[in-house]
Write a structure and sequence with these properties.
Shape: globular
Largest sheet: 8 strands, parallel, barrel
Number of domains: 1
Radius of gyration: 21 Å
Pfam families: DHO_dh (PF01180)
Pathway: Pyrimidine metabolism; UMP biosynthesis via de novo pathway
Strand order of the largest sheet: 3-4-6-7-8-9-12-13
GO molecular function, one term: dihydroorotate dehydrogenase activity
Keywords: Flavoprotein, FMN, Oxidoreductase, Pyrimidine biosynthesis
Order of helices and strands: EEEHEEHHEHEHEHEEEHEHEHHH
Number of helices: 11
Helix content: 40-55%
Strand content: 15-25%
Protein name: Dihydroorotate dehydrogenase-like protein
CATH topology: TIM Barrel
Structural class: alpha/beta
């Protein structure tokens, strides 16, 4: 029988399937169902600094007697401490009950909070930390280098104060993604997750209102991830790549491993089909390995990465000329 064990962020995973940060991983009971289905690791739902501040503002603006700065400061401290305490409790209780790596996740926009939260998370027993970083650059006069430096600074500052491995969940919005990943690798990051799935706006033309676009991914969304996993894993060797977005079945898991991923994150598929989809993915992976004669993942991981295929330019192709040139 095939050995599905893999390494990610220096951690040993019994298999490469990681459940992404989401509402699926916000309670010990929910995580238990994922563990039972066979998940190799979980990324806990993110601790959002923005959400904590939103809760603070709601309490202050809806409350009475907050004309005094001391009262407002007390509410801010109390709300923040309790939000963080609940998150730390989730980490410690999950670690006590389940024997899989538990990766915490934080989403902050102020550098001092990144460091503070990271230290507390490590003390609570998390095996690793995933930094959910996203800055939307809308300044037409800004320097792309300065935009990228924000990510490097976060990783550098956090890596200095914790011993646990740190990864960064990235979006697509970089002019040179390979360069960014390489800079992160020498700044302390042990891994990157490609790619984050962000809130996307839509417009309701009847109500003339801004709404949210589809939240869950589809299998077709994997096309962007596959390309960049294959390229990045081949060009940056001292960092682990976790493939995320569009992973809905076992074939997708195999493809991402062949492209060079060391782990594969799934979320939308579990929302749509339940934890059993994890078991089904593992069955497909195991069966495929048996059919191909592979006894371990390292025997085939990266065999279809950028430099391993006969024509690497296929990963760079951006036009459809080959397929649609005959269409008028």
């Amino acid at each position: 029988m095939a050995n599905l064990e893999t390494k990610y962020l220096g951690l040993t995973l019994k298999n490469p399937i990681v459940v992404s940060s989401s509402g699926l991983t916000n309670s010990v009971d929910k995580i238990g169902k994922l563990v039972e289905a066979g998940a190799g690791a979980v990324v806990l739902k993110s601790l959002f600094e923005e959400q904590i501040n939103h809760e603070i503002n709601n309490i202050i603006y809806k409350g009475e007697g907050f004309d005094y700065p001391e009262a407002a400061d007390y509410v801010k401290g109390y709300t923040r401490d309790n939000s963080v305490a609940d998150y730390l409790k989730l980490i410690s209780e999950t670690k006590k009950q389940y024997d899989i790596p538990v990766i915490a996740s934080i989403n902050c926009f102020s550098s001092d909070e990144w460091v503070d939260f990271a230290q507390q998370i490590e003390a609570a027993g998390a095996d690793a930390l995933e930094l959910n970083v996203f800055v939307l650059n809308t300044d037409k006069n800004s320097d792309p280098e300065a935009y990228e430096q924000l990510y490097v600074d976060v990783v550098t500052n956090v890596s200095k104060v914790v011993k646990m491995p740190v990864s960064v969940k990235l979006g697509l919005y970089f002019s040179n993604l390979v360069k960014v990943v390489n800079r992160l690798s020498v700044s302390g990051a042990k891994g990157v997750v490609l790619f984050n799935r962000f809130y996307e706006p839509d417009i309701d033309i009847n109500k003339m209102a801004l709404t949210s676009a589809e939240v869950l991914s589809s299998p077709a969304d994997m096309r962007r991830t596959l390309r960049w996993v294959a390229i990045t894993s081949d060009k940056v060797h001292n960092i682990d790549i976790s493939a995320s977005t569009g992973v809905h079945d076992g074939a997708a898991v195999v493809k991402q491993l062949l492209a060079g991923a060391t782990s594969v994150q799934t979320c939308s598929a579990v929302y749509k089909h339940g934890p059993k989809v994890i078991t089904e993915m593992l069955d497909v992976l195991s069966q495929w390995m048996d059919e191909k004669g592979y006894s371990a993942i390292e025997e085939f991981r990266g065999l279809m990465s950028y430099s391993k295929i006969e024509n690497p330019a296929l990963y760079e192709r951006a036009q459809f000329m080959k397929y649609f040139s005959s269409y008028e």
